[in-house]
Automatic annotation (TrEMBL):
Protein's recorded name: Diaminopimelate decarboxylase
Domain Orn/DAP/Arg decarboxylase 2 N-terminal positions: 41-294
Enzyme nomenclature, EC number: 4.1.1.20
Annotated active site: C360 (proton donor)
Biological role: Specifically catalyzes the decarboxylation of meso-diaminopimelate (meso-DAP) to L-lysine.
Cofactor(s) listed: pyridoxal 5'-phosphate
Gene Ontology MF annotations: diaminopimelate decarboxylase activity; pyridoxal phosphate binding
Membership in a protein family: Belongs to the Orn/Lys/Arg decarboxylase class-II family. LysA subfamily.
Binding site for pyridoxal 5'-phosphate: G246, E288, P289, G290, R291, Y389
Species, as recorded: Desulforudis audaxviator (strain MP104C)
């Protein structure tokens, strides 16, 4: 397994993260356990902030990747803005005291209650996804006496080379308003007709886990060409251009993500060239990284419960977690690397080993082909690069409680998410009155 951030192998032959021995973390906090490397999370934030500040741009951390009260504080301290996509994410930001003048509110079906919450809280920008949402924003902004500053989310017709489930830039998508069929221009007209709405810019997001940078440059050129068409028709001039997130990370051999600095250079170059070509001022450029900040900073620790060898076929190593705490492998075949955190120097087994979860699903395999030493019951398995879209997508399937999360730094570990209990699982359950009295 490739080591990331502050990971190292200590003198005991154990995996260490943030100066904390993984075996000690398991002893104190139990498993499954999400471990977040604070130093690496902060470093990734700074890489983006510095790279995009050079061109006068801005960086919004995509909260959907991983959002807790503590994560909000880290993002705030590192000087980034925040992209939220639901009332729950917005509520988390509010409770963390995150500055609302750095919050952008996304989502393709915002409810009236969510919009009221956001307007009342003073969210900086709404990213509008449909004509119906324009109607809702206009009505509620007038009702509350607020001004609604917004970006229009557009679909530029770009299909990034990634999994079908995480492509979003093509025209046939639940997200955004299409440019080629005239929907985008009609949305601009409607914004400009409504006094409570202030159109500030354009947005697009072409997908996730992207390794090729040319689609970002293509998206910039397409949106800037559209901005020129809008100016010619309506007189409106673009102020902000938000190109979303999606930069890929290393999960397993074969993944070769570009550097953040290269991404910034590509985007700024394309925007500047397009602005000159279209006769427009250069807008403020925004990006929304999530995975590439949180992903490499996260590791999940598990305890091995059973080792089942099928002679001549493979060995199934079952851990005390699985698709409940990380649905990505089952959902779209995501690949990961793993190691034995308590025996980092062990020689790798030559047999085929599958790392299996404990959910009652044959598809609950965390890693189909894991490179591990011969595994024993009680071993501690570490799966790397699980900081993004694991905790945020976790479920209680099979009534398994969701894991705890710790923040590690300089040899200390702090609990930032408590482990759910069985009592938490039934906290919202209600027994109908007719069932409450039972005959002896």
């Amino acid at each position: 397994m490739r080591l990331h951030g502050t990971m190292r192998v200590n003198e005991k032959g154990h995996l260490e993260i943030g100066g904390c021995d993984a075996v000690d973390l398991v002893r104190v906090f139990g498993t499954p356990l999400y471990v977040l490397d604070e130093a690496l999370f902060r470093e990734n934030c700074r890489l983006y902030r510095v790279a995009f500040a050079r061109g006068g741009g801005g960086v919004l951390y995509a909260g959907k990747a991983l959002l807790t009260l503590a994560v909000c504080r880290l993002v705030e301290e590192e000087g980034l803005g925040l992209d939220v996509v639901s009332g729950g994410e917005l509520y988390t930001a509010v409770q963390a005291g995150f500055p609302m003048d750095r919050v952008y509110f996304h989502g393709n079906n915002k409810t009236a209650d969510e919009v009221r919450m956001a307007l009342s809280a003073g969210v900086h920008r709404f990213v509008c996804d449909s004509f119906d949402e324009l109607d809702l924003l206009s009505r509620l902004a007038l009702e509350l006496g607020k001004e609604c500053n917004l970006l229009l989310r557009l679909t530029p017709g770009i299909e990034a080379h990634t999994h079908d489930y995480i492509r979003t830039g093509q025209i046939d998508s639940k997200f955004g308003l299409a440019i080629p069929n005239g929907q985008a221009l009609e949305a601009v007209r409607r914004c400009l007709e409504r006094p409570a709405l202030k159109l500030r810019g354009l947005h697009c997001h072409i997908g996730s886990q992207i390794f090729e940078l040319e689609p970002y440059a293509d998206a910039a050129r397409i949106l800037m060409e559209f901005a020129r068409q809008v100016r010619d028709v309506t007189g409106w001039v673009i102020e902000e251009l938000d190109l979303g997130g999606g930069l890929g990370i290393y999960y397993s051999p074969g993944d070769d993500p570009p550097a953040v600095e290269t991404l910034a250079e590509t985007i700024f170059g394309a925007v500047a060239q397009a602005a000159a070509s279209e006769g427009l001022p250069i807008p403020k450029v925004l990006v929304e990284p999530g995975r590439s900040i949180a992903g490499p900073a996260g590791t999940t620790l598990y305890t091995v419960g059973t080792v089942k060898e099928i002679p001549g076929v493979r060995t199934y190593v079952a851990v005390d977690g699985g698709m409940g705490d990380n649905p990505r492998p089952a959902l779209y075949g995501a690949r990961y690397e793993a190691c034995l955190a308590n025996r980092m120097n062990g020689r790798l087994d030559t047999l085929a080993v599958s790392l299996a979860g404990r959910c009652c699903e044959s598809g609950d395999l965390l890693i189909r082909q894991a490179d591990l030493p011969p595994v024993r019951v009680g071993d501690v398995v570490a799966v790397s690069c699980t900081g993004a879209y694991t905790y945020s997508m976790a479920s209680n399937y099979n009534r398994f409680p969701r894991p705890a999360m710790v923040l590690v730094r300089d040899g200390s570990a702090e609990l930032i998410v408590r482990r759910e209990s069985y009592a938490d699982l039934i906290r919202n359950d209600i027994v109908p009155v007719r069932f409450r009295t039972r005959q002896a």
